Amino acid sequence: MTGLRLRAVAGLLALLPTTSFAADVQVRAPKPKRPAKAGPSRLSGIAVATLAYAAGPVEREVEGASGKSVLKQGEFVRTGDRIRTGPETVARIAFPWMSVTASPSTTLHIPSEVILSAVFDRGRAEIAAEGGDILKLRTAEAEIRGSGRVVVRRDAERQALVVAAREGTFRVEGAGKAVVLLAGEGTVVRQGAPPAPATRLPPAPSDLVPGKDPVYVVQGEATRLSWRDAGATHHLEVLPLESSDILLARDVGKGPEQVTIPWLGTYRWRVAARDAVGLESLPSADGLICVVEK
């Protein structure tokens, strides 16, 4: 009896439409989702330096990423970063073996390359390396290598590079030729042309007021600074009493100038002259300013 029932059921199944049965048992697998596109990481570069000091806003752009961000004091500078200082900002970028002090309106780029170097786009930078060579500095006009302390200026519109060695020895190479600068010498390089022969830097300004005898000012008030002119334009700096770190800096005319130091304490100030071609002198002797509480 059981065998007959099984044969009957099997016969009925054989009579069912095969297409309908197949449709009932189809299973549709879900389509695989496409992985979301990862946006470029703002921290994808290798940390090579630190923004050790910033008096004012510092802007950062990253290779391969859109938009800009604010680089804060204490944050890493990485390969791929393009750094810009504001129109009144002084920033110091500290590498393990050297430092770059960028004056206002300066742009510096650290390419993502196997050999570490820096590309100087515009503005003014003072580079210092003690006991070793500076990072190779490149511009559209030349490459700079050496050890010591050097001031570099670049006018992007005029496509001119001005290099002034303050300490040590530097080699400036452009258009297949090179010139060696000793302390107190400088050169000018124009795009497509070799560096001009090394020449002595212009004389430094003198007769600073205030000078060795400090002037006392109340915090928040401006101090009047004057000097004997040594050029058509000058570069003014404020530094701590016992450090070579530049705190405030700006390009000025023949003077006098007003400067406000926002911090309490005693500070040094100095000024350098620039000649007609843009070469910058060694700094003047220091003057002293003492900022006191109200």
Quick description:
The chain is mainly beta.
Overview of the molecule:
- With 294 residues, the protein is mostly beta strands.
- It has two domains: 47-200, Jelly Rolls (Sandwich), CATH 2.60.120; 206-292, Immunoglobulins (Immunoglobulin-like, Sandwich).
- It is built from two helices and 23 strands.
- It has helices spanning 2-15, 18-25, and strands at residues 47-55, 58-62, 69-70, 76-78, 81-85, 90-94, 98-102, 107-109, 118-129, 137-138, 143-155, 160-174, 177-182, 185-190, 199-200, 206-209, 215-218, 223-228, 233-240, 248-252, 257-259, 265-274, 287-292.
- The strands form three sheets. It has a 15-stranded mixed β-sheet that branches.
- A hairpin with a 2-residue loop joins strand 12 and strand 13 (177-182).
- It starts with a helix and ends with a strand.
- The model is unreliable at 1-30 and 35-43 (pLDDT under 50).
Given helix and strand content, the structural type is mainly beta
- Give the C-level CATH assignment of the largest domain: Mainly Beta
Let me know the largest β-sheet: 15 strands, mixed
Number of DSSP-assigned strands = 23
User: H/E element string?
Assistant: HHEEEEEEEEEEEEEEEEEEEEEEE
Instruction: Determine the fraction of residues in helical runs and give it as a percent range.
Output: under 10%
CATH architectural type of the largest domain: Sandwich
Number of domains: 2
* CATH fold description of the largest domain: Jelly Rolls
Shape: globular
